[in-house]
Structure formats: C-alpha cells, structure tokens
C-alpha cells in the first residue's frame, strides 16, 4: 500500500536543495532516535570519565595508606577506599580505560579477521567460500565461554606478566568472535551480488578493483559498523567475566571485572558494597549504551526503514 | 527428512574433528598438568613420573590426541582425575542440576518474551512498547555475575528472602515435599537471573518477528475477512512469527545442559558448569576436554534440531 | 541480407536442483533449452513469453552474465565463451544491458553522474573533464538534466532511474543492447516516454536491440522481428508484421488473444488456455505446450515438433502447421 | 437505473510523513450501483488503492487517517460504525481481493482453514457445514479436485490458483460488493484472461457489484460498466465505459488512451505524456496535471477546476477547458 502512496518523485522546487548523501541521511535518522542519542551521550560520558577524569583526581593510584583503608564513601573519597586505602573512584576510572580499550581493540581484531574472511568468501565463492565457511562452522560450534576460561587459565600458567595480559586478552577475545561478522559480511555480499547493479558492473566490464571497492564494500560497511558496535559490548562483557573469575585482567592492573571480584570476600560483599557496585554499574551502563547505539545505527543505516 | 538428518549428521564429523583438534591443542598449551597442579611436596619425582605414565601424560601431544580421540569415538571420554570417575558419569551426575535451572529459565523467558513481544509489536510506538524496549536493552546488557551478586546481596543477605547459595540447606534431612520446597527456594534467584539474561534478546526477537509479520499481505487479507483483531494476531500473525523463533529453541539446547558457569559459581549451585570451573583449577584434563567436546556436540545437535524444527513448523520447507 | 551481429546456436542454460544425502544434482531447471537465433545489425529482435519461459535468462546468458550450459554464442564472430576474462572485459562496452527493476539496478551509494561515467575510467578514458562532458551529453540525450549529475538514485522516480540505466549503457557507445523488460515496472504514461526514447536512440545511433518483454503490444510497436518462447524453447519466430498478421503456433495465437484491448466495442474471440504453466524443472514430454494446447493430439505428447522454416523466414515448432 | 450500493462523499484520506502531508485521497466522490462493475483507473500513487482501503477501513494508522467525508453503504455511513460493527461488514457484505496472490494467503494455514474462517464467523456455520460450503466454493472458482485443494497449503498452488482461492474466500459470504485491487497485475496474460473470465462469470451468476481497481485500460474496457479516472488523489473524470473510451474529456484520460500501444494497430510513434506524477507531499490548490498538460492555461496553475458534467449527466470531468470562467482571479 505504501508503494501506492509514496512514489519518490522530484519536484522542481527540490532543485535548489542540497544533495543528501546516504551518510547524511543516516546521521539524520540516528539523531532522531532518542534512545540512540541517549546511548551516545552515555558512552561519551564514560569515555570522558575514564580517560580525562583521572587527570583531575587529587588521589594517586599508589596512595597506599592503611589508615584510610575500607572507608565508606565520603567527601574526600567519593566512592570510598579499598583494603589498601586506594581511592575507588580513581581505580574505577583507570579500570574503565582498560575495559574500554580491551573492548575496542578486540573488536578491531574481530572486524579485521571477520570482514576480510567474509568478504573473500562472498566475493570469490566456490572452493574458497567452502573452506572458510567450514572453518567458521568449527569456530561457531566451539563453546566460547569455556574456551575463554581455558585460555585465561593458560595465560595464568604461562606466567604472563599482568601488564601484558591485556594484550593477550584482546587477541583472544577478538579472534574467537570472528565468525558472526564473517557470516554477516558474506551474507551481505551474496545478497548484493544478486542485485542488478552488480550485474551491471559486470556488463559494463568494470575492473574487479572498482567492483569491490566502489560497489561491494560501501554497501557492506553499514553491516560491519552495526555488528562491530554490538561486538564491543560483547567483548567488554567477556573481559569483565574473565577478570571477575581472576583469569582475565589481573591485579594490580585494575579492570571493572576484577574490581567486582572483591565481592568474593564475604565481608566486603556484605558490608562494603562501594567496592564492587560502582564498577558493576559502569559495565552495565557502558554495555546498555553500546547496545542502544548499535540498534540506532542499525535502523539508521538500513535502507529498508524509510523515514 | 530421514535423509536430511543423516546427511547433517555426516557433515558434523569433519566439524567435530576440527573442534577436537582445537580444543586439544589449547589444553596442550597449558604448562604443567594434573600432577603438578596437585603438587604434593611429599611426592617423589619418581612417583610423579610413574603417575604420569599411568595417566599417559608422558607421551608426545599428537599421540595423546589420537589416543584420546580414538577413545572418544568408542564413547569413552576417559576418567576424570579429580573425581576418579568416568567423565560421562561426572557429567551425568551434575548435568541434571544444571538442567533444573536451565529448563525453568527457558520456560519463563519464553513465556515472558512471547507475551511482551507480541504486545509491544501490536502497540508499536506506544508507551508500553517504549518501556519494553528500554528493559530489553538493559536485560541484553546485563553482566551475569554482577546482577547475580546484586540479587544475592539484596534478596538473600539483606532481606533474607532466599538462601545465599547452594542447592539444599546443609544439614537439612528433608525428603519429599519439604526437599522440593528447599530446592525451589535455592533455585529461585539463579533461575531469575538466567531468565532475565535471556528474556531481553528473545523479546526483541519476537517483537521484530511480529512486526515483520503484521506488515504482510495475508494479515491484511485476514482483516479484510472481518476477523476479530484477536484472531488476526493470535491465529494468523503469531503462528507465522513463531516459525523463525522455533529455530531458536534448537539453539537453547547447549544452554540447557551446559550449565551457566559463572552463575553456578556465584550461587554455589552444584551444576556441571560449576564443576567445570573447578576442573580447570585442578587441571583435570580429561574432564575439561570431555566436557568441552560435549558442549560442542550439543551445539551442533542444537543447530540440527533447529533446522528440523523449522522444517516441521513451516509447511513451505521440505527438508531434503 | 544484413550482417549477423549476434549468433546463438543450440544455447542451453540449466540451473541445477540438488538433493539426496550428498547434495548431488538430482535435476535441472531447464531455463533455456536448445535455442538458436540470429540478430542482424541494426534490427531489434523481440522476445516474448510468460514468466518462467527463459527469456530473461537468454538475455543474460548471451552476454555471459551467467555461464551457459551448452551451445555457442558468437558476437561479431567472436565466441564470447572462449574469450579470456580480460579480453571479454574489453569487449563488454560493445554489448550492454538495461534492466527491468529501476530500483535494484542502481547502486544506492553512487551518484548518478558517477554511475553513468565510471565505466569510462575502466576502459581507458582517464581525463575527468572529458568524462564529465560525455556523461552530461549522454544524460542530455536520455532526457536527464545536468543538475542531476550529483544526485543519488533515491531522489529519482522509476522512469528517471530507467533513463539513468539507459544512459549508463549508452555512454560506452554500444552496438548491441539487451533490454530486459525495461518498461514493465513503469506506469503507462512513463512507459511511452521510455519506449520512445529507446526507438529514438536506435534510429540515431544505429543500435541493435534484443528486446525482452511479456507485453506483445510493446514488442509489436518496437521490434522488427519477434520470437515467442514457452518453457525454455522458442516456439515461433518471424518478422513482426508476419507474426501478428499470421500467427501459426497455437500458443502465439492464445497469447495474442489474451491481451485485453482498450476498446469496449472490440469483439473478442478469445482462446482461453486452460491450466497453469508447467514447471520448467519438470516440463511435459514431447511438445511442451501439449498440456494446455487446444489442438493437441497423441503425437504432441510423444514427439517434440521440429522447429522449422515454413517459408517467408517464418519459423515455427508445431506438428499441425 | 439500479439502486446505489456505495456512495463516496468527499472522502479525504491523508498520510502523515516526516516531509509533510500526503493527501492520498482528496475530496473523492462517486457511486457504485448494484450489479455494476465500476473501475477505478489511474497510475501508481493516484490514490485508487487507498480509496478502496478506506472503504474497508483497513488504512494503516498511523500514518494514514480518514480525515473527512462519508462512505455510505446502503445508505449507512460506514465511517460512523464501531470497529465491531465494521468487522461484521468486512468479509461478509463487502469483501476484497488483492494484487499479490503469492503473499495474500497465510502460508502456515491450509486453504480449507482459510476459506472456512469467514463462513464460520459470519454465516455461523459449524466446521462440517463450512467444509462442505468451502468445497463448493473451490469448485465454483473453477478448480478441479476441491477436496484435495482443501487440505493443501498455499505454497503448493500456482499464482493463478491462489487468486482463484482468494476469490473463493471473498465470495464465501455472498457479498454485495467485491473489491478487486489490481487482481491480475501480478499474473501472466494467459492466466489473467482466466481470472477475468471467472470474475465476469461470477458477476453474472451472483449479481455482485464489483469495484475493480486497475491501471490497465484494456482490463477496464473488458470489465467495466462505469469508469472513474484518478490522478494525484483526485477524481478527474468519470463516465460510462463506452462514453469514456469514445469521448474522453480530460487531457490526462486522452493521453492515457493514446500512450499505450495497441496490438494490431501499429503507430509510428507513441503519444507520450511528458514529465511525471507530481510529488504528493503538500500539493498546491491547482490542477495537479497542469505541468504535464499540453493545453495548460494560466488558471490551471492557480485554481482547481470544478468536477462536473459538461453535457451528458453521467459524464463528469474536472478541467478548465470545459469551463466558461478562464480568467485568473
């Protein structure tokens, strides 16, 4: 019915109108989505808090002072202190740097592997496609949390230095996630290849380079952006779960997950909720925010939702 | 249909081989083994070596792989070192505890998701829909351990509504009804958390699926027949929206038996996931490997189940 | 006789159907089943038939946009299926295609001017000024205004998009254009504009068309010769005048009589065909049309009729002609 | 002359879009008489489907809304009925078939189930009686082996068969009016001929009025008793079918008739209407066809022509060419 009502026609008066690129249209749609904008504000806030906040903190990460240990939130220590007398707020902000960084870098790795393999499988098809997709099947069937846990344990056993553990974690989380993205990209490319404009590129005798970079990729990027956004949230959750279990980011490097593991101590858990609730809320807020943005992007970039 | 299932089962073989190689390779990377993990300072080096050769830990990796894989083909997953029992027995002992919370959470999350999904699709853009959407996002973003801890803190420790952890009150020698009530009390919080975790994305799925179906031509036809809105939604739209969702039921399979590791750990629930986390600390290889393979097999079977269910539910699909 | 531009012999295009435990091919959809024809320089050949008859598949297969199953396709004497990839690519500008769907045939992320001109880059024109000039010139010919150069496809209506598609094909100075149902998706008043544009272009540029359509009246208006297809086979082919004056195949007759005439006083003498079009995966034996043919007899079920010339360059495949 | 069955009076159906209001149906009035086939003809976006959907009150809201006018069905204003009362009329006294037979039937329900539904709902038949009637109906629309079809699913049938089933469903409760929204557009010509035959047959047998919506003037000539031509949301001409084809008044109608090539009447060059349908958002208060019209005068650009007869009572059109007043006010 809508087809009957809204032919996209052009009036003479649109002649003067500025050209609306697909990206601008997407931006406009995104900013019209309230939840997505809220998510965006939340994530910007988290970044500012974690990366700029520590610069304004009067405390120092190495301020061990046992006389100030386990203080409840007060005027000096807004979120209280831990058993070594360190400021929780500062630690939480620094932990956020680590958690956000792990999420972002892991996703970059996921995107690099996933998008490349997916694109190669989709574009070349046949044997290459078959091979890549069989490998993807294997990775899809691997139970991800158990594998992450084993790998976390391996890191512990290999006596990897706490400061370099985060790099291993980024790689592990990034690598294990590639299949979802690869499938999405491949699926998108297969759909695109069926479109008449891709047949037109063949009929016009365009070079492969142009077909891939001008026609296929720009139409695949929206899918990648959405999947990547959502996978940042997933990576942050994975990292925090591992760190909570003590096999992800380990102290002294702070991360939201390992701060929450303070709750493993019954007294801290019961009597000192300021130790573990704030970092938990940070994870929650960050992941809600990212999911909201991802969803907003999906709606904004999907050409099917015309607004 | 039979042919289809056979083909799919055959196709699983190479995938399983791939999975087993990866899993084995990862575990082989771990320095140290069960013997060192249990390091008993009193144990002599000779004794250790002797134990190693009993467990076959002294052979090169590839040989161990073939021995292990060969045994698995025969259905022998090996013996858990920690429990001194066959891996399958250990799994069988604890998997049902996991199943209890799994099945309840599955039931509740599907029930809630269906109802809210349908109504928020039916009243798209309404206030109810907006609230649901926000809740869905929160549920989808919950870190399981954090929400588990919060609930324990407030409901179990502060309000004392529920026990803090475990499956039965220790020392309680209850039977029958009393025992059942006791387990129910203990399982309430873990079931609640698990339900919250999966309801989010499910609701979203049902909502999207309903929205898609409501736009279809045959819904217009149904309305044009003068059917009541209730009939249109529940008979015509809901059945179609359910078809893609039925596939998800297959994907629930590993979750049902695999145990929710972190939650079981937090709630000290004696499920198979909890045992698995312990086995890693103990470097109980046979159990780690066996259980991971078990999970992978469940995943593959779940995928197959999903496709078969789809074929049954949708008259248009004839599986070949 | 004029020069033969496109020569198609015994072309077959089967799409496999898979099944069984190992997904082996268990059957074929015979989309194009042993079709031969010639297209002469400067003429326009129409292909008509109902959905599933294989007319669009022919259009794509003779341009090697999908691979053939059997047969030969010669374009200006070159077998396009034996050309190496790069040589084929170089030859592509000479043979172009205009698609049916004005929406999926344009990349939503590429500006119209670029979409029309980009092929020039890949075929050796590198001066962007020259390209721009040629694009604007071609847009002008196709009835598009120059200010539309920097617009995206979504800002255009169906008819204008079809003009863009034509301009994109035309800029390469092709000799041969496959027009695959170019007006089916358009409204009547826009259809007429596009049909007129296509016939003007043919006259001005000495183009050769393969015009694929399900609409006999459009084909009659635009084409010099017409082929009628049914279930992957050519059942009749002759000059337009001859075909419409003297249709021989019972399918052609039925097809013609089925078209509603916009004249309430017109006395219809309609042959209504019974039943549905059979599946091309499992076509009837003998003459494929026998299940719906009003004059079918036993021989039609057993033996496929020969596709032969009954004089006056009128080819037909029917036992009763 | 037959009794009036449906009368549209100044119907206004608008759609709200982010870019502005689309007056999809703008002040439309016409009458469908008993036992008559009325064709609404026009190009995509002219509002012909929306008119029919307004009659059924199946306009999706939001974005659509009937904002004014009346739709009288046997003298009663349908727009004033409650939802429940309207659903008793829908599928019962007024029924509808759609353009896409492939997607208009529910894929997970059997054909029998879908035909029985309105029978059980409106005719209050029990399951058994409904099945018997359903099989009769399948037979009526010319499908052999109705028992087998009763138990099949839509995907097992071809497009033509499905459209027959849709017709069977529509006829199940002996409607007074059958609305057919482009019923043959998605079908092949030989199948279209079958369906049009069937509809003519049924009209003769059951004396049902038909509101046929189409863009194909050939179909109009074959089926219609009376024709309404729409352009950009407005009725621009209406007349009995012979009258319209022999003496079209509005330049748009004339153009449409000339623009379509006709078989066995070869022309050198097709007449074509220049330009395209105007953007439906926030149209001005003028003749919407003025910028494509070869007879465009100054007044056409600023004022809407009245819709009335110019000579014969039954033939009305909206064009300044036939008006005395031509000065710009």
From TrEMBL, chain A:
CDD domains: TM_PBP2
Keyword Membrane: yes
Boundaries of every ABC transmembrane type-1 domain copy: 96-294
Keyword hit for Transmembrane helix: yes
Transmembrane regions: 35-56, 98-124, 131-154, 166-185, 216-237, 274-294
GO cellular component term of the entry, any: plasma membrane
GO biological process, one term: transmembrane transport
Membrane topology qualifier: Multi-pass membrane protein
Record's keyword terms, sorted: Cell membrane, Membrane, Transmembrane, Transmembrane helix, Transport
Subcellular location: Cell membrane
Database matches in SUPFAM superfamilies: MetI-like (SSF161098)
Gene3D superfamilies (alphabetical): MetI-like
Chain coiled-coil ranges: none
Pfam families reported in the protein's UniProt record: BPD_transp_1, OppC_N
Family: Belongs to the binding-protein-dependent transport system permease family.
Protein name: Peptide ABC transporter permease
Species this protein is from: Paenibacillus glacialis
TrEMBL record, chain B:
Transmembrane regions listed in the UniProt entry: 12-30, 94-119, 131-156, 187-206, 245-267, 287-310
Gene Ontology biological process: transmembrane transport
A Pfam family recorded for this sequence: BPD_transp_1
Residue intervals of the ABC transmembrane type-1 domain: 95-306
Record's keyword annotation contains Ligase: no
Gene3D superfamilies: MetI-like
Membrane topology label: Multi-pass membrane protein
Cell membrane in keyword set: yes
Organism domain of life: Bacteria
Cellular location(s): Cell membrane
Keywords annotated in UniProt: Cell membrane, Membrane, Transmembrane, Transmembrane helix, Transport
Family as reported in the entry's similarity comment: Belongs to the binding-protein-dependent transport system permease family.
Listed name of the protein: Diguanylate cyclase
UniProtKB/TrEMBL annotation, chain C:
Pfam family name, one: ABC_tran
Boundaries of every ABC transporter domain copy: 6-256
Keyword field: ATP-binding, Nucleotide-binding, Transport
Domain of life: Bacteria
Entry's Gene Ontology BP terms: peptide transport; transmembrane transport
CDD domains hit by this protein: ABC_NikE_OppD_transporters
GO molecular function: ATP binding; ATP hydrolysis activity
Gene3D superfamilies given in the database record: P-loop containing nucleotide triphosphate hydrolases (3.40.50.300)
SUPFAM superfamilies (alphabetical): P-loop containing nucleoside triphosphate hydrolases (SSF52540)
Family the entry assigns: Belongs to the ABC transporter superfamily.
UniProt name for this protein: Peptide ABC transporter substrate-binding protein
From TrEMBL, chain D:
GO biological process, one term: peptide transport
Residue ranges of every copy of the ABC transporter domain listed in the record: 6-257
GO cellular component: plasma membrane
SUPFAM superfamilies (alphabetical): P-loop containing nucleoside triphosphate hydrolases
Presence of the UniProt keyword Membrane in the record: yes
Membrane topology per record: Peripheral membrane protein
UniProt cross-references to InterPro entries, sorted A to Z: AAA+_ATPase, ABC_Ni/Peptide_Import, ABC_transporter-like_ATP-bd, ABC_transporter-like_CS, Oligopep_ABC_C, P-loop_NTPase
Keywords annotated in UniProt: ATP-binding, Cell membrane, Membrane, Nucleotide-binding, Transport
GO terms for MF: ATP binding; ATP hydrolysis activity
Annotated compartments: Cell membrane
Protein family: Belongs to the ABC transporter superfamily.
The protein's name: Dipeptide/oligopeptide/nickel ABC transporter ATP-binding protein
């Amino acid at each position: 019915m809508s087809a009957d009502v809204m032919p996209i026609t052009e009036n003479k008066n649109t002649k003067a109108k500025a050209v609306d690129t697909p990206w601008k249209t997407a931006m406009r749609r995104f900013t019209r989505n309230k939840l997505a904008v809220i998510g965006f504000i939340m994530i910007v806030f988290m970044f500012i808090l974690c990366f700029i906040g520590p610069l304004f903190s009067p405390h120092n990460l190495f301020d061990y002072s046992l006389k100030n240990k386990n203080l409840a939130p007060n005027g000096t220590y807004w979120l209280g202190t831990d058993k070594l007398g360190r400021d929780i707020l500062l630690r939480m902000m620094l932990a956020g740097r680590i958690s956000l960084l792990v999420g972002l870098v892991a996703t970059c790795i996921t995107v690099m592997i996933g998008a490349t393999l997916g694109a190669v499988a989709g574009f070349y098809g046949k044997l290459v496609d078959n091979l890549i997709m069989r490998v993807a099947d294997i990775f899809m069937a691997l139970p991800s949390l158990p594998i992450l846990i084993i790998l976390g344990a391996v890191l512990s056993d290999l006596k990897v230095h706490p400061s370099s553990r985060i790099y291993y974690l980024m790689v592990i989380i990034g690598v294990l996630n590639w299949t979802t993205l690869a499938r999405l990209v491949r699926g998108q490319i297969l759909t695109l290849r069926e479109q008449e404009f891709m047949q037109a590129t063949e009929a016009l005798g365009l070079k492969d380079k142009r077909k891939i970079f001008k026609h296929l990729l720009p139409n695949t990027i929206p899918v990648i952006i959405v999947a990547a956004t959502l996978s940042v949230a997933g990576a942050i959750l994975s990292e925090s779960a591992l760190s909570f279990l003590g096999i992800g980011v380990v102290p002294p490097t702070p991360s939201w997950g390992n701060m929450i593991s303070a709750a493993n101590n019954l007294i801290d858990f019961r009597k000192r909720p300021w130790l573990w609730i704030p970092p938990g809320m940070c994870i929650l807020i960050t992941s809600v925010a990212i999911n909201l943005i991802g969803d907003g992007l999906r709606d904004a970039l999907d050409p099917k939702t015309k607004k | 249909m039979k042919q289809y299932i056979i083909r799919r089962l055959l196709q699983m073989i190479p995938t399983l081989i791939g999975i087993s190689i990866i899993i084995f390779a990862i575990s082989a990377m771990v320095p140290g083994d069960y013997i060192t993990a249990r390091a008993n300072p009193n144990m002599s080096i000779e004794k250790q070596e002797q134990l190693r050769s009993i467990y076959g830990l002294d052979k090169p990796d590839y040989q161990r792989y073939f021995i292990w894989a060969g045994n698995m083909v025969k259905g022998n997953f090996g013996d858990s070192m920690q429990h001194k029992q066959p891996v399958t027995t250990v799994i069988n002992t604890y998997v049902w505890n996991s199943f209890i919370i799994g099945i309840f959470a599955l039931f509740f999350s599907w029930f809630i998701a269906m109802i809210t999904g349908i109504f928020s699709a039916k009243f798209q853009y309404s206030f109810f829909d907006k609230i649901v959407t926000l809740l869905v996002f929160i549920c989808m973003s919950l870190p399981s351990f954090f929400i588990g801890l919060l609930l324990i803190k407030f409901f179990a420790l502060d309000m004392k509504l529920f026990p803090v952890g475990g499956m039965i009150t220790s020392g309680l020698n209850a039977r029958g009804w009393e025992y059942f009530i006791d387990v129910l009390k203990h399982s309430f919080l873990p079931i609640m958390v698990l339900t919250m975790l999966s309801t989010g994305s499910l609701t979203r799925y049902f909502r999207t699926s309903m929205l898609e179906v409501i736009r279809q031509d045959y819904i217009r036809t149904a309305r044009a027949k003068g059917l009541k809105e209730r009939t249109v939604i529940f008979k015509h739209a809901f059945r179609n929206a359910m078809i893609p969702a039925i596939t998800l039921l297959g994907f629930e399979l590993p979750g049902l038996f695999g145990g929710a590791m972190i939650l079981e750990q937090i709630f000290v629930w004696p499920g198979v996931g909890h045992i698995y986390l312990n086995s890693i600390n103990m470097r109980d290889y046979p159990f780690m490997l066996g259980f991971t393979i078990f999970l992978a097999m469940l995943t593959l079977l779940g995928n197959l189940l999903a496709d078969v269910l789809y074929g049954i539910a949708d008259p248009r699909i004839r599986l070949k | 006789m004029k020069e033969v531009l496109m020569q198609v012999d015994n072309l077959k295009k089967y799409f496999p159907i898979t099944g069984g435990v190992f997904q082996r091919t268990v059957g074929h959809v015979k989309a194009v089943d042993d079709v031969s024809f010639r297209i002469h320089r400067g003429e326009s050949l129409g292909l008509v038939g109902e959905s599933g008859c294989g007319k669009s598949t022919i259009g794509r297969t003779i341009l090697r946009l999908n691979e053939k199953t059997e047969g030969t396709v010669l374009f200006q004497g070159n077998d396009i299926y034996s050309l190496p990839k790069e040589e084929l690519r170089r030859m592509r500008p000479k043979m172009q295609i205009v698609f049916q769907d004005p929406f999926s045939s344009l990349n939503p992320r590429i500006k119209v001017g670029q979409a029309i001109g980009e092929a020039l880059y890949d075929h050796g024109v590198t001066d962007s000024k020259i390209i721009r000039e040629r694009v604007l010139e071609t847009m002008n010919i196709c009835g598009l205004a120059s200010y539309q150069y920097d617009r995206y496809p979504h800002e255009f209506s169906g008819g204008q998009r079809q003009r863009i598609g034509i301009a994109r094909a035309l800029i390469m100075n092709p000799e041969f254009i496959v027009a695959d149902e170019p007006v089916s998706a358009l409204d009547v008043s826009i259809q007429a504009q596009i049909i007129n544009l296509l016939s003007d272009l043919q006259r001005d540029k000495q183009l050769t068309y393969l015009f694929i359509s399900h609409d006999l009246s459009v084909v009659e208006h635009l084409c010099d010769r017409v082929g009628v297809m049914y279930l992957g086979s050519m059942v009749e082919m002759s000059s337009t005048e001859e075909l419409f004056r003297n249709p021989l195949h019972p399918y052609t007759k039925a097809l013609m009589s089925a078209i509603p005439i916009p004249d309430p006083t017109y006395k219809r003498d309609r042959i209504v065909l019974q039943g549905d079009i059979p599946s091309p995966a499992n076509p009837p034996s003998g003459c494929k049309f026998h299940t719906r043919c009003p004059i079918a007899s036993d021989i039609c079920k057993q033996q496929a009729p020969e596709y032969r010339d009954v004089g006056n360059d009128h080819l037909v495949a029917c036992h009763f002609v | 002359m037959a009794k009036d069955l449906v009368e549209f009076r100044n119907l206004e159906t608008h759609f709200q879009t982010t870019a502005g209001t689309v007056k999809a149906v703008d002040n439309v009035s016409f009458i469908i008489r008993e036992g008559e086939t009325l064709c609404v003809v026009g190009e995509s976006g002219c509002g012909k489907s929306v008119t029919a959907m307004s009659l059924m009150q199946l306009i999706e809201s939001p974005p659509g809304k009937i904002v004014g006018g009346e739709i009288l069905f046997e003298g009663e204003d349908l727009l004033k009925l409650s939802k429940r009362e309207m659903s008793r009329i829908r599928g019962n006294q007024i029924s509808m078939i759609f353009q896409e037979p492939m997607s208009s039937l529910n894929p997970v329900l059997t054909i029998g189930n879908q035909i029985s539904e309105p029978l059980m709902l409106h005719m209050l038949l029990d399951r058994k009686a409904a099945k018997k009637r359903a099989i009769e109906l399948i037979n009526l629309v010319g499908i052999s082996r109705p028992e087998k079809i009763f138990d099949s699913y839509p995907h097992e049938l071809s497009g033509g068969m499905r459209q027959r089933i849709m017709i069977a469903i529509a006829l199940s409760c002996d409607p007074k009016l059958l609305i057919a929204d482009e019923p043959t557009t998605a079908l092949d010509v030989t199948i279209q001929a079958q369906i049009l035959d069937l509809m003519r047959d049924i009209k003769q047998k059951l004396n049902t009025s038909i509101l046929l919506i189409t863009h194909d003037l050939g179909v109009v000539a074959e089926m219609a008793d009376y024709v309404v031509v729409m352009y950009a949301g407005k009725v621009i001409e209406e007349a009995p079918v012979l009258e319209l084809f022999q003496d079209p008044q509005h330049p748009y109608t004339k153009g449409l008739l000339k623009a379509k090539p006709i078989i066995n009447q070869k022309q050198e060059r097709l007449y074509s209407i220049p330009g395209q349908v105007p953007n439906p958002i926030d149209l001005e208060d003028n003749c919407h066809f003025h910028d494509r019209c070869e007879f465009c005068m100054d007044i056409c650009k600023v004022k809407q022509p009245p819709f009335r007869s110019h000579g014969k009572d039954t033939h009305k059109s909206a064009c300044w060419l036939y008006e005395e007043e031509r000065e710009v006010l």
